[in-house]
Design a protein that fits this description.
- With 350 residues, this protein is α+β, with helices and mostly antiparallel strands.
- The protein folds into 2 domains: 4-50, no CATH class; 118-347, no CATH class.
- 29% of the residues lie in helices and 19% in strands.
- Strands 3, 4, 5, 6, 7, 8 and 9 form a 7-stranded mixed sheet that branches. A two-stranded antiparallel sheet has the order 1-2. A two-stranded parallel sheet has the order 10-11.
- A hairpin with a 5-residue loop joins strand 6 (223-232) and strand 7.
Length: 350
Amino acid sequence: MGTGTGADGSSRSDEEWERFLRESVAGVADAPKEPSARARDVAKRLRAESGRGVEGWRSYTPARPKRRTGWYVVGLLASLVLLVVALAPGRIVDLFAGADSPAEAAQRPTRDEPFRGSPAASWASGVAGITVPKAEAVGWMSAAEVEQALARSRDFLVASGLDRGVLRGERPEKAIALINPHQKDVQDLLKTAFRTPSEKNDPLLLFSRFQPSRTHLVGDVVKTRGRLTYREGERGALLVTADVTFVYPVTRADPGGDDEIVRTIVRRELVLSWDDPAKVITEPGTFSIVSYKYDMTNGGCGAATGYFTPPFGTDRRADAAGTEVDPYDRSTPVGQGKSSGDECARATRS
């Protein structure tokens, strides 16, 4: 039976067709280089009927297999997760429980190093962190009198913010003795603040205090940074401005509690007037308070109690929703003072 057609239309025998195929594959010199006239006619007719070209007999391109990289990647990641869970299940639990990373844990304060991980670690301790300028004559005071007034102004900061008894909740008698007893508004505040503290009459406006039944100071060191400045005020008075930040490391008073340490950070600004006794009713060695304000973080929120109430444990996490502030930024003015109610300030670092 014929299986091919010659150039003149005659039929080729089976032997001739097989020879044609062998010579085409072997590449002999006289082997055909392109399809027959009949093949070309068929291809032309097919293109006309279908409206599109057809592939040449030697131009076949095999279809590419479909990629499944998406499922492959998902499967690989799932395998890795299962491997990590199997090898270190505790680390996975810590991750989703919000546990500190090893680096954060290394910066956590301890009883031996209560300022570890804090900018205050490099600050001076106590009174050494309060800078006092060189004294010169101002108004009604000589240079020597200004020097003495600056020293007593610093003494007030020590008695109100560093005295260990006052920090443990005792009445600040030494500090009160330096305030002009004839300054009625401040004396009224002092009479009420320790008995029935309120937002208006709060001892924390002038003094740093912690309730000993709730909070204990850690160690014997309070870190400080600040300075005194002075200028001449009304009626020739010496106006001394104190701008000092205090950092108090504290822990729970409950002996059965954990060793969580919180640093309460308080920045105070006081303006003190050393008045000329010939022009203002005052007592020797005392000053009048012109203004007082402070910023505080990690010292508690809510109704005034007369004490700083540092948040521990779940209370500390609840305060995390407050406005973020950097308590170590001393480039901005001191704000209105203690956070209260829902207006808790959250320290970005402590």
